[in-house]
Amino acid sequence: MFTIKETAKKLSVHPVSVRRWVQSGAIDHLKIGKSVRFTQEHIDKFIQVHTVKAKTNYGESSKSGGVNA
User: Fold this and answer.
1) Which residue of 1, 6, 7, 51 has the smallest Cβ count within 10 Å?
2) Residues in the chain with pLDDT values less than 50
């Protein structure tokens, strides 16, 4: 299990961001007494949910002849 600080480091964000996500319900977590903890599964799910898929279809040519045409 990981603390807020450890989770922030794994996600390359400030611990305040992780605290806000906890308060808003944006990231799953465990509450143990007053402590907040995260499992690797919580972190992986958060990353998966917030991953933006690329819209560009590489390898397909456009009718205009490309981006710089």
Assistant:
1) 51
2) 69
